[in-house]
Amino acid sequence: MRKKVLARNRFKAVSVLLIVALMGTAVMMTALADPLPPATGNLYIHKYIGSPTGGTANGTEQNTSTWTDVIPANGIQFDLYKVNTGSGIPAAGAIYALNNNSLQVFSTGGALLGSYPVTSVGSVTTAGNGLASSMNLDQGLYLVIENIAASTDIRNAITGERMYISSAIAPFLVAVPMTNPTGDGWIQDVHVYPKNEELTIVKRVGTDEAVAVGDTVNYTISVSIPADVSTGQRFEVFDEFDPALALVESSVQINTIPSQGGLARGAAGDFEVDYQEATSTMTVSLTSKGRSLLSGYTTMVVSFDITVTAEILTYTDYTASNTATVEYVNTNQIYYEAHNFDDPTIHSAAINITKLNESGAALNGSSFKIATSDANARANRFLRIDSDSVLYDYDPDNPTASTWYTLGSSADYTVSPANTGKFTGLKDKVNGVYQTYYIVETKAPSGYNLLSDPVVVTFNGNETNYTYMLSVTNHQGFVLPVTGGTGVIICTVVGFVLLGIALSIAIPRRRNRQLTK
User: Fold this and answer.
1) What is the tens place of the pLDDT at every residue in 321-374?
2) What angle do CA 361, 363, 368 make, to 5 degrees?
3) C-alpha distance across the termini of the chain, in Å
4) CA torsion through residues 183, 186, 191, 192, sign
5) Whole-prediction pTM value?
6) What is the pLDDT of residue 69?
7) H helices, E strands: number in the chain
8) What letters, b where the CB count within 10 A reaches 16 and e where it falls short, cover 469-482?
């Protein structure tokens, strides 16, 4: 019995050894097969816009959940070319370019190191969280070129908003399949993560409160600076102003974030300004020197002042806006463009007066003036307006030495509504405080009474198109007796005649009585 148990144990031991040996043989066979790459592989291009973040460029799929300051981008096209490596492998870490169906390899100093024939294998475009893929590529080396010219509808893969790219990534080479990070096998699914910075432009206005004609308002245009700006060919900002905005040319300045003290203006300086008044167009161009100064900074800020013109008074909503544009051409003559879509606006305010009688019917023939305080209204110190539609208020500090005074009362801002009329170019808010105005009727329609007190109007932010709608009702005047009429004169004459007759009769009778006595 004992012999049978020993024999059985020996059999089990031999079996285990055979299994281990077979496994080892399989591993050895796999190891022997690994040095030869698979016949095909898959290329996955994950496209992000933003500053480079963590991750390792080794062909493996990365965990991007912790990446910050990057946005996946859809709609970006990549052109793929298979490189003929029969004459050798291109140098690593060099500069690659496509020229006449050949891959040209340059040193960082610009020397041509070699040229390799390529064959186009098509294009892929990112979609669905910024991913583009090319499946079942024949084993080999591939040149990947980001084709910005063909990427006409780049979108934020998360929000769907339009995006712009400041500079295409440099062409790069990738092996498909790729040797794995440990160097003992192959990655058949190759993942690459090219990143770009987005070309952005944001325009802001220095106030959100109403402006009046003649006011000066500051604007800023913030532009992202391309990483390769120092070698770029052109970097310009354009702003086509609304006719209600007139540029103060001398006010244009450029600075960087963080500040370096400002760039110098002029052809021999860092930037130039061209303003075409006829078309209300401003062009700010960085010179070669200026582009070099921007290198290493992330944001350029163009600031300037505008003067509000009377054109704003002709707009239904008393609002003016405009869009700025930035254009960039890099060293490879690739063109980029971006616009600010969140247009900043300025606005003016108005008071619309509708004149009615007691029955609510339209009433013509009134005149109104406007003041900024009850005291001014009662003292006839109304707003005055010049020939350019600029308003002036009474200046208590210079009662006889101000524009308001020199304009004179003939320039009082007067509205004579044909049923309706408007005071325009007003401010609805100043330093966060809603404004109050006092409307005085200086002439009433024939047969109607003047208003005995100013009408108080206070803006509150609920106005439509920044217009306060005011209805003013007039009442008919009191009818006084007419004196000096012909009928009265006749009655008076007749009265005197009758009184004389009565006296002439009464006096003799009194005398007769006295004589009788």
Assistant:
1) 888 999 999 887 778 888 887 778 999 999 999 999 888 888 999 999 999 999
2) 135
3) 196
4) positive
5) 0.67
6) 77
7) 5, 37
8) ebebebeeeeeeee
